Fold these 2 entries.
Entry 1:
Amino acid sequence: MIHNHLDLLNKVKTDLPADELLSDLSDLFKLFGDSTRVKILFALSESEMCVCAIAELLGMTQSAISHQLRTLKDANLVASRREGKTIYYHLSDDHVRAIIGQGFEHLTEKQ
Amino acid sequence: MIHNHLDLLNKVKTDLPADELLSDLSDLFKLFGDSTRVKILFALSESEMCVCAIAELLGMTQSAISHQLRTLKDANLVASRREGKTIYYHLSDDHVRAIIGQGFEHLTEKQ
DNA sequence: CGTTCATATGACTACTTGTTCATATGATAA
DNA sequence: TTATCATATGAACAAGTAGTCATATGAACG
């Protein structure tokens, strides 16, 4: 410690969540920190969609979308169901909408 | 387009925000997508703190913290005030707390 | 069976980024 | 001024990652 802020440090240190929890938190936000994934999540918040529909909507490769969907699925933000050859993805959690909503509020509410 | 989902595509396409807005949104979440920055933001949500206090709290270099504070300041998530040689940082926006809170809800509310 | 459609996957590459190290700035005190 | 404290900054390096390309899987159809 350089100058004196022991009391403050102790206070904040007790309130700070465990490293692992904060790491999980940043990992969660990291998923929203890519424009392709945010677009996918936003689209899925409107409607369930199949992979090629998302790819066309975003003007991107099926492969690129598939990779991102896997990332989102591994994190349990989206889930899928199969219907013949087509696989439909949807949000697995309403928190996704809430988180995106909060972000939008920050962006749009500028005085 | 490969198989038929024109109606859905048109519907979702009109509801999807502009590319630039979604890009800004992902840029915002990107800031929360690093454990060091999340820790800093969480700490500052408890109390205003100087750089070396944050560095000690997180067990990291003053330089590393300073770099991240600059990133957060450029994004207008934190602001600073000078008091002699010391510079105190604080959250510049209550949305930061709300966003972190939403993330926590998602993490903790598991059934 | 073989073919086609929809999606998934693995390897590779180019780009981004968080930290370190050394140094600079800027304020205070002697 | 010189020294010291608190912070900022620039360059460089290592680790992570989004997209591409080629290929694999898996279901439906003839």
Entry 2:
Amino acid sequence: MLSQRQLDILTLVVQLHAATGEPVGSKTLMNAGINASSATIRNDLSFLEKEGFIEKPHTSAGRVPSVQGYRFYVDHLLKPSTVSNEELSSIRQSFNRNFTALNEIIEKSAQVLSDLTSYTAFSLGPEMNERKLTGFRVVPLNNQQLMAIIVTDRGNVESQVFTVPDDVSSGDIEKIIQIINDKLVGQPLITVYNKLRTEIPLILQRYFQTPRGIMDIFESILGNAFEERVYIGGQMNLLDVDLIPDVHQFKLVYSLMSNQNQVSSLIQTPKEGISIRIGEEIQNDLLANMSLITASYDVAEHGTGTIAILGPTNMAYSRMFGIVEAFRHELADYLADYYRLLDS
Amino acid sequence: MLSQRQLDILTLVVQLHAATGEPVGSKTLMNAGINASSATIRNDLSFLEKEGFIEKPHTSAGRVPSVQGYRFYVDHLLKPSTVSNEELSSIRQSFNRNFTALNEIIEKSAQVLSDLTSYTAFSLGPEMNERKLTGFRVVPLNNQQLMAIIVTDRGNVESQVFTVPDDVSSGDIEKIIQIINDKLVGQPLITVYNKLRTEIPLILQRYFQTPRGIMDIFESILGNAFEERVYIGGQMNLLDVDLIPDVHQFKLVYSLMSNQNQVSSLIQTPKEGISIRIGEEIQNDLLANMSLITASYDVAEHGTGTIAILGPTNMAYSRMFGIVEAFRHELADYLADYYRLLDS
DNA sequence: TATTAGCACTCGAAACGACCGAGTGCTAAT
DNA sequence: ATTAGCACTCGGTCGTTTCGAGTGCTAATA
């Protein structure tokens, strides 16, 4: 369908446009290594345009890749650049501090990934839904306040301070803790979440007249732990990209990113490995001129996590692909170590 | 010095400029209620300019208040607008949820204040430095992880999960906890912080060969609790203000606000009550075209806290002053209640 | 003496237009 | 199939003009 030269031209259009941000013209392509006259290149350009791979912003400008063009490039022409050893070791180094809870590692990873790419990065830890509630503690802090601590499967910890309502005695609390330990600890979180709305209130009714107040508290705590949390790094990097035409849109994007649910569904990826979505493929009007690279990673029997970066449509795909690819492996390795340590 | 009409004119210039953002001309002032011809007003304007209260962006524009003009307005002309009952009750309502730890109340207050003013808001809880360490708990989570919980004076809680180094046995941990409980609980935080670097290591040396690793952990945890934390709400509101000329400056301001130390010293206020700093008075080049309203509030014997808002120099001072004034009292009352509850 | 009407003047913002040049499409020659 | 040549397009830049809000000054007025 496309001649080799046409493939070369498309590749260069994508890469030069990524490098300069400008539309690419026939002479530029000639100088960039296409072995043909500018006229010939123009013919090819015109062909590529007819086929929908590139388009021109206006008559007398150069060409710019279309979404379809990017798609084709990403699917067939992209050669992931290998990550330099220095970068690799800088990734490792940034994970090298002795982190504490899993959440903090995940949070840090979003930070590092965004620094590395200078775009906005997302990080979601290994699948939460398969996790079990492995520990539940309530620690008295003073007369009126308690701290509830929830430990899930491995390493993930949520805590919340709460004030005891007037009508609840410390004996009541004891009983509730015992019930929770009996009935909930060791169960998958999803079960916990369900029982909390069905079975537990029934049991509590046997002991208390009005279990509602205290139940609300525990429900909110456990609910917190249940929610998966996507960490975001480098949100301000979006401001550098000239793709945010006005401040208003930036605020919209920012508030989009403040909403866990929306972010969650944004970086949801259907398939294994790395997926690249370009412009309108993201199916979100706000992000129409951006691209999203999503990658999943497996941590042995501990489920799979997700990382992602969001940048301009004309990002340097091969470099970004390389970074994301390297990063997902590093993170998976690091987490495998982390779990191994916990198990030892 | 200034005639009554000149005072009126200055007031109107400030207020109209706040309302429209445009320089104010003589005709506008005439229509806005100054009882004199535009020529007369021009004379007064020219006088006010000579005295340094107003200035003109360029020859054929209207006048704009100078910093000195704002200063005079704020010091002598400003009538704080009273806050409507609805607003007052909406403030109260937003505090009405059953909050848990003090930090969360303070965080929420920054949020509410920024919503109310549509500027950026800061909130610092009642003086931390006078606080004492009243509780210290270490809770085992699993084989390798512990959670340390620190409770200060009243209601303030910090927690941190950490992984136990290989060379530390659970007996060691027990001993350390005991030492901390003996030597540190009940002391003011500042003492804790100091002892942690002097006395405690000496004691530990008696028991362990290499106390360093474990000490690092505790030091970082306690250090965390020691740090005062200013909460910020509505940072994105700065983007609405047309005062941020370019995205670059916004990023600078944003990173300024990401630095606890800088924010802390920013909202440091010398005097009691409400203080208004205008433009260059803030002594920060980045904020040269903004104003900062800082207010302190007392919570009986629990120290004093600070709230602040940061907005454009031409903000509606009387309204903002009113809001901040109302807010500091509401917050003080609410916290007084909160502490009363804890003491009961 | 304070106020006001009148008028010439200033200067930024917006509208206009000429020009430039990168880039195109097409045609005819190789 | 490729290329040289050329007329054409159109956004961006830059200087000019126009417009109008606002000023300062002067002379008349209360």
